[in-house]
Amino acid sequence: MQEQIIAMISEIKDDAQLANRLNEHSSIMEDGGLDSLQLITFLLKVEERFDIEIDFEQFDFDFLESVTAFCNYISELQKTASV
Prior knowledge:
Layout: H1 2-13, H2 18-21, H3 36-50, H4 67-81
Helix pairs in contact: 1-3
């Protein structure tokens, strides 16, 4: 899942080299360099790719502190969606 998230960020930024610079500890906002519009695009792509629904009103931006934290968040959404 981490590779897919990193690939999505790289695709949105249109920077193939970015995928080589990001890792599981990278901040999605700071290291990924997403602006607000790119962040929305990223979250919508994540929803579509992982078949989840992100509640934007309740979303905690702390999940964007690292790729790992965001992947854990997605995994939790997938678990609750399948119950």
